[in-house]
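New to this. Please check this record:
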Amino acid sequence: MTIKRIRTCAICNNEFITSQIKAKHCQPCRPKARQKNQQNKRQTIAQKRVLKLSQSDEWLWIARECKRAGTVEILHGVDIPALLTVYRSRFKTHGYDKETNKTNYHLCHISPAVGKETVGLLHHQNLFIGSAFHNQTHGNKSYLDRGLCIPKSKLKARWKVTSTTSDRVVLDKVTEFLGQVLIDYAKENPVTKSQRFCVAKWIFQNDPNNTLPLSKLEQMSMSDLRAIKAKAAEKEAYIIDYATKRSFIVLLEECERLSEQLPAGEHQSDIAFMVPVLQVAVAWLSRQPDQQGLSSILENPYGVTWNPLQLREGMDASMLRDFIGFRTFHTLQGQPLDRRMIRNTLSKYLMVTSLSPDYSESDANSAIQRHYADEYSRFVKQVPVIKNAIITLGLPDNLMLADEIAKAEVAAYEESMFACFQPNQCTDLLDYSTTHYEVEHDYTPNPNLVTYQEPTFCPF
């Protein structure tokens, strides 16, 4: 016999009959209850993740930046996923010099982290990856209405921190300052514990020669900890040797990112102008001897001859590269751009030799083309991008440009002809296609077939 129980729904407060002893919700309210339980679970998971911030390299970096600026208010209006994407991208450049223990690339502030009267925000629209040399040369300069910042006079004492404040205290303030923004982020994104803490704990527990406390070990770099662990375990140190990204590639990627992420304005427009400038520079540089790491912008597949740009006689290649590098960096920082000067300088140094690749050698050897299929496919997609960049900057002469326009008109006409051509498909055995005709190669006429013969005389 089933026992019927009367319960009061915890959501709508209406009575309902059930046989379940633990039932708390009526039938209509059960989906709402499940949804609420899932939200509570996600909230609990998010809160647990937030407690792990001090064990994450990404959030320890945020804590250091807050101490550097003297306040956690530099996170005002932050987009956490976008900010951490920029942070992680710097490590993908692999620009680390082991001999000097320094990195070749910095996360540069557009509005200075610590200016004379302002502090720059830790925001993806106020940061870009630039070379350490350019950043150190630039110093603490700033340009009016460029970047994101807060006046020092408007900073609140409640959110201030100092260089001696512990990371845990700083991150507690960050948690309070961000509030629900951080909780919502933690619901969808796990806070990854740094492997550095695991290695430090192993050394503290297993290395008999270690004299450092765990807190000191956790502050050491990963490479140093791996070396200590390898020595204690009597093994070779685990070393990964990454290739460093070319500076022009890094600058181009940052110009493309900020030209999309910055709000419309003069700064965004100037950065967008530098995109074709860098594409042209990489296209020229990729065809010079012993130049590697530029294939993401322009491949150089075997059997294809295309040197779109050539350095003019008597011009210094190193001066051109320095000019483009410094000009791009200063544009990212917010310095007003003289576009006419950029175009004239490129025309002074570079001469356009060809706007169309020569595929004749690759077409003659289909086996080679199949072997380098990936390179060919990438190259074919890159050619129009480089060609458009060259034309956009006004580098080709009038004759070459007129010839290219004529080719484009012919190609457009042919494409339009094919687009308006509507093929008729076969509908029965006695119908014939209008798009395809084929005669079998092994066809032989029937010898018994009586063929038509032309009459030798006219009967009338």
Summary: Residues 247-418 form one domain. The chain is about 50% helix and 5% strand. Residues 252 and 278 are 6 Å apart (CA to CA). The radius of gyration is 34 Å.
